[in-house]
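Notes from the 1:1 (GR / supervisor)

We went over the backlog. Supervisor wanted to see one worked example end to end before approving the batch request, so GR pasted a single chain during the call. The sequence is below; no edits were made to it. Supervisor asked that the structure be written out right there so they could see what the output format looks like.
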Amino acid sequence: MYLMQRIFEVDPWNVVTHKLDKENKRLQESLTSLGNGYMGMRGNFEEEYTGDSLPGIYLAGIWYPDKTRVGWWKNGYPKYFGKVINAVNFIKMNFLINGSQLDLDKDSISDFTLDLNMKDATLTRSFIVDKSGSKIKFNFVRFLSVAQKELSVQKVSFENFSNEKVDIKVISSLDADVKNEDANYDEHFWNVLDITKNSLIAETKPNDFGTPRFTSGMQVNYVTDLPETDTNITDLETSTTFEKVLESKEIGTIEKRVIVLTSRDYQDIDDLRDAMEGISAKVAKVAYKDLYCAHENVWAERWNQSDIKIDGDTDAQQGMRFNLFGLFTTYSGEDSRLNIGPKGFTGEKYGGATYWDTEAFCIPVYLGISKPEVSRNLLMYRYNQLQGAYINAQQQGLKGALFPMVTFNGIECHNEWEITFEEIHRNGDIAFAIYNYTRYTGDKSFVLNEGSKILTEMSRFWADRVHFSKRNGEYMIHGVTGPDEYENNVDNNWYTNFLAKWTLKYTLQILGEVSKDQFAKLAVSDAEMKQWQDIVDKMYLPYDEDLGIFVQHDGFLDKDLEPVSAIPKDQLPINQHWSWDKILRSPYIKQGDVLQGIWDFIDDFTEREKKRNFDFYEPLTVHESSLSPAIHSVLAADLHYEEKAVALYERTARLDLDNYNNDTADGLHITSMTGGWLAMVQGFAGMRVHDDGSLSYKPFLPKKWNSYSFRQVFRGRVIEVAVDSDGPHFNLISGEPIQIEVNNEPLMLK
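Structure output shown during the call:
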């Protein structure tokens, strides 16, 4: 139905092409992005490129308040839209061949290769350029160290393929004259505080909103066989020039090692400078191969624990690893101040902020591939931002806490009213994440302490946000947007009402388990608990008896319910071809809404309920949210719709690699890269964790595959699951023995 755009070769471990695709340069840049959780960058070139490009280097936790410009202001509207900003360009290196600037947009090149190696997270590029009467082969290698998070390493070599001598000049810079493309900024946003031959310290410019200013520092050292010939320092840039005349067949090499630090980790500029110099001096003493090996070894450990292997379908294998690679390069979990932006370090769209994607989609995956502390830190991120959630609720005249749709600091900073203050189901998604963490890990220490505080304040919000319909004798929630953002300002979105009811019920349960001291701190009155129970007992959940479905919202069934297959193919995706008015009037669903709730609580619904709702809603779903295909794949697998499950897996796993939604050029869909794991583990393997803490599987093998296998972290254990033509096989890699259930039969793993 949707056209794929595949510009890289299919390979199990590499994203590689032998074509410089100038028409799709931005897409190439997105798909070759790198990151190490601390910083990241798009795959744009080090050197000047005069064709279309979207350069981007981003530092974790560094952002700026972009002034919100709207035509009609509303009370409670956010004052700014927080956005990640382009960092000081520390990878910049220009090359002159016999005095003429290298520019791959204009120059004649051959033997081009661009290769992202996912196994060890390196980006290489090579080509031969015919320029100024000379022929030179260039080779670039780039990686962001995961062994030393502050370290960026570039290595460039150039070989003279000419019969004559050639003059090579390298001008390497730290450049603070950078801008964002998708922003209201009209000028650069870094004020340089200190600049020397080998270092640059800059601070974000002042803002009118009282948000923090950030300082970043970069220090560079070089390892090269080229003589240094010049230094140039301006207000915003420091550059060093290296130059050498290469004999025929002679090779020149330059390594650029940059240490990058930010004020998030240092008390003042002196501390930052001292640390920058200290780490830089330490790194300068280490050989390139040792820096590379240290980085490679960490990646080897990651893949050893989390790799998913698929035999018989290289497309599927590459897609799965690309998903996992995107997650690993974005977030590693050591810092509870950080979260997972929908684009990670790969683009400016969505501002690099935190969305509900984290709780709904990322935490289930990180629970399975990482130690529990990683997911707990994501929950602590929300707890530490409770003060901002209070403010968000107060701006709407409501009690309790409303966690933001989009944020860096807990304060809402999204600028679309129908999303910002109507898509309030995110409060329920956060409550579900607390429950999900507790159920999966068996660790109640969070929910009985910090978690109980979050749940209590969100319950106070829900109790104030609902209203009681005297006519119907039920509680309702009007004026909301559900996960399906192609429906705005609706009444009684089933998913929102369901999560509100569930959150209140879960909070009451937890209040019965907390200590006396914690209960006293929460100061929940008997009247509050009585009200919350009344809402639980009388919450309105739209349902249609004839169809046997939960109705997405009041009035949904009054639409012309034509399936997506009725839309002419040349009008897809509809968000790029239809007016917003036409989309709102249509029955088409952006992503799972009712089905999102069924996926969340899949054990709580009957086979008939799951089937009726899936058969009704999936044909109406255009899957134009990157988050959509994965949950539909899981539900399809649960219903034994194997062909549909596999098709939706392929879509989620290769969403960016094949540019399904025609929007990958502005960055990857990082939070939806959880989709491959979810579709495989919850879908094909049928993994479920039940309320009693038991673990079960109902695996099947897609017909087009020979086998698949994965490792799963669960309650101090690592379990290996393999499925082939002989059936499922389970192995306890580490940890205490555990009894699991496979196809409704007990199995002891020792």
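Supervisor's comment: The chain has 19 helices and 31 strands.
Batch request approved.
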